[in-house]
Amino acid sequence: MGLAELTEISRFYGSASGYVIAGGGNTSFKDQETLYIKGSGTSLAAIEAGGFVRMDRKKLALIWEKQYGDNADEREQAVLADLMAARSPGEENKRPSVETLLHDLLPFAYVVHTHPSLVNGLCCSKDGEAKASELFGGEAVWIPSCNPGYVLSSLVKTALGAYRSRTGKNAAIILLQNHGVFAGADSTDDIKAVYGRIMGALEKYIKERPDFSNKAEEYGNSREIAEQLARLADKGSVAVFERNNGFARLVEDASSFYPVSSALTPDHIVYSGSDPLFINAEDLSPAPRLEALWKGHLEKTGRAPKIAAVQGLGVFGIGDSEKTARLALSLFADTATVSVYARPFGGALFMDRDKIDFINNWEVEQYRAKVGNAI
Ligand SMILES: [Zn+2]
What we know:
Low-confidence stretches: none
CATH topology of the largest domain: L-fuculose-1-phosphate Aldolase
Number of domains: 2
Shape: globular
Bound molecules: zinc ion
């Protein structure tokens, strides 16, 4: 029991299809004194024992005794500084996951946090809360959409306390609206059993799966449009194209695009942006028309889109390298997947604008986007 098992289970979920996207999610192991938490910017699938940050749990507990101001930026900066100060000696060059406090709160040896598309079909749906209580009421806690970091950890702390006093037990499952799931257990076998129950319950509801077959990386005048989009974006940007059956249906018109037209979770915002640009076929040319559309989007949202969808054609990921452009496309594909899985639960529910803005402006998230790997 310990770091070796933690490494093994992290790799297991990091490489299991449908659990994590872009290396995302995070895991931990704890004993009385120490928490080993995944470092920010490392990928679960390939993590080594050295990829975990050793944290002093006494120092983490002290964070709950402090008062932080109401100003969100100042509070998150102060909490981050306290989190950094809770690293054990010798760990100074590592950065613990932003979800460290939440991991520490769960009274289980192992905690595995992931963003599975199937679970997010429930967590990012209109009827999610009611369905979650019907499906997992006895063992799960539902946390309404909120800003990540300290606010999320505080909400979970309160909810776990309430669950404990109501049931006399510790909740093994935390479902985070518009985010993902935390599962806790005292052995890695039990973690797998918890995830097995979650996935088993949700699979029964799924009548439809996304169809990404017939993939093409070039179609019609996609190459020419990719060049145009790369020129409109920041200097040195790259645009990559994809069309498949699912994308083709989404780009039929603005209304078919609607279910993927905003953000479902923080991870989607970090890698594929909160505001994809939908381009009607008639706006493609002449070039100044597309340019005006792009500028209007920039003015409205304050940032360049990482996803541009062209009516009747397909979807472009845009980034400062081919890697980030492809990452944007794969997160967009996950948005499309989650929106299909949300159908049995009343359809996809986007994040609120104020929470989207918080992620767009959060220093921690900018760090993740820069590093190019999810937490
Ligand atoms: Zn997360």
